[in-house]
Amino acid sequence: MKCRIIAVLGTRPEAIKLAVVIDQFRRRSQEFEIAVIHTGQHRTMLDHALQLFQIKPDFDLDVMRPNQTLSSLTARVLDTVENACLRFRPDMVLVQGDTTTAFASALAAYYSKAPVAHVEAGLRSRDIYNPFPEEVNRRLVSAMSEIHFAPTASARDNLLAEGVPSDRIVVTGNTVVDTLRALGELSHSWENTPLAAVPADACRLVLVTSHRRESWGADQERMCLALKDLVKKHSDIRVIYPVHMNPNVRQTVEALLHGTERIHLTEPLDYITFVSLLQRCFLVLTDSGGIQEEAPTFRKPVLVLRKVTERPEASQFGMAKIIGMTREAIVAEADRLLSDGDAYIDMSQGDNPYGDGHGSERIVEAVARWHRKLTPLLEPDKEFKLPPRPQPRRRRTDVPTSVAKAAAGRE
Ligand code: UD1
Ligand code: UDP
């Protein structure tokens, strides 16, 4: 008997991170029958990605409403996904990440007695309002999951600390790294994209995105003012800011930044165009989870526009820095990287600590073994291991103390 899988996606990052997993299941069509549910939590922003990865959903639930509230969205997803589960009768329901789609779909699967597998499990900020509501969504999915696909060892450790049995956790690497690998070398032209309007001059490109609910209003305003300060101070930069479709984000960004010289506000970019911008930019300022995980593949320093992150690896590797949302901190940290070559080089070395491009294979193999009731779900030596940490470069101030003292004439 084939193993019947439902994969649920609803937002842009879920499509980008699950497309490769769905593809792996399809490659093993002797063992698996897979149906894709698109809740429709996002419409335009997700349809871009579905086209690129040639995913045709089997169920399109069309739940998005302009400026939707969390409660109404949750209720619509819960109701419609439960119906789809009852019709398809899956052996397992796969959800990804921390969105309302992931949480409400896991609950719907649980109500219909289908086991849940959680991709990107175990990330924790330990602050239920940062990110809001994603931290709680992710924890609630853990409570309902049969298998936890933790991207990294630290995510696994978070789950173990909460009492999840170790034989239910597999460390996979984040599947977004598989997605980037699948795209291969890009030499994508910006003609006929929203970036065509950006002059091709010698300016360095600063890529900015922000959309988190906890930053709406005052924080978002401060961030916009900081961007204005930066272009004023550095005549050789251009800020490129693809603005999220959420009307709460758009209002502030457009009111404060529209028409500012060398700040380019664009519509959300299709994924290939976005990745090619990530490749060509100098620096990234973002509150996005996915972009924090992608930027290290291209060795682009990331200033994280948040108070905390549930993705600590890049900052532990020195490739990202959590700087919050004050105007002063954003200007000071970006200014440092734009002006100090050593500081910049220190943040742009090392391998991506989030994944090695084989996450989706590990996930599908573990589901196959689970279906055949084999243990362990994956041999430990096949799990994802962190690459070596980049070594800090030696500076004059790093010379051993005895040498430094001698040089200073004190020994
Ligand atoms: C959601 C996720 C967030 C994720 C983000 C990725 C939740 C609670 N939040 O936030 O974790 O980081 O997606 O982008 O699940 N809209 C459109 N067209 C689109 C998409 C959105 O018009 O294609 C507008 C609509 O007015 C919609 C609003 O944006 O009501 C908000 O969308 P929603 O999915 O509720 O929240 P996001 O802020 O996108
Ligand atoms: N992304 C994109 N176009 C854009 C901005 C982002 O394709 O204009 C991609 C980005 O590469 C990443 C994902 O969308 O893979 C992140 O989505 P978002 O920041 O909306 O959500 P988060 O990752 O914070 O949940």
SSE layout and pairings?
Elements lengths: L2 E7 L2 H16 L4 E7 L5 H9 L6 E2 L9 H19 L3 E5 L3 H12 L4 E4 L14 H11 E6 L2 H9 L7 E3 L3 H9 L20 E6 L8 H16 L3 E6 L4 H11 L5 E4 L4 H10 L2 E4 L2 H6 L7 E3 L8 H4 L3 E3 L4 H13 L1 H6 L12 H13 L29 H7 L4
Parallel strand pairs: 1-2, 1-4, 2-3, 4-5, 5-6, 6-7, 8-9, 8-11, 9-10, 11-12, 12-13
Helix pairs in contact: 1-2, 1-7, 1-15, 3-4, 4-5, 8-9, 8-13
Bound molecules: uridine-diphosphate-N-acetylglucosamine and uridine-5'-diphosphate.
The site of uridine-5'-diphosphate (UDP) has 16 residues, from α1, α10 and α11.
Written description of the protein model:
The protein is of the alpha/beta class. It folds into two domains: 3-173 and 358-378, Glycogen Phosphorylase B (Rossmann fold, 3-Layer(aba) Sandwich), CATH 3.40.50; 204-352 and 390-410, Rossmann fold. The protein is 42% helix and 15% strand. The protein contains 16 helices and 13 strands. It has helices spanning 12-27, 44-52, 70-88, 100-111, 134-144, 153-161, 175-183, 218-233, 247-257, 271-280, 289-294, 313-316, 327-339, 341-346, 359-371, 401-407, and strands spanning 3-9, 32-38, 59-60, 92-96, 116-119, 145-150, 169-171, 204-209, 237-242, 263-266, 283-286, 302-304, 320-322. Strands 3-2-1-4-5-6-7 form a seven-stranded parallel sheet, with helices on both faces. Strand 8, helix 8 and strand 9 (237-242) form a beta-alpha-beta unit. Helix 3 packs across helix 4 (100-111). The longest helix has 19 residues, at 70-88. The protein is globular and about 65 Å long. The termini are far apart. Residues 403-411 have low confidence and may be disordered. Bound molecules: uridine-diphosphate-N-acetylglucosamine and uridine-5'-diphosphate. Uridine-diphosphate-N-acetylglucosamine binds at residues 11-13, 41-45, 64-68, 70, 73, 98-100, 133-134, 211, 245-247.
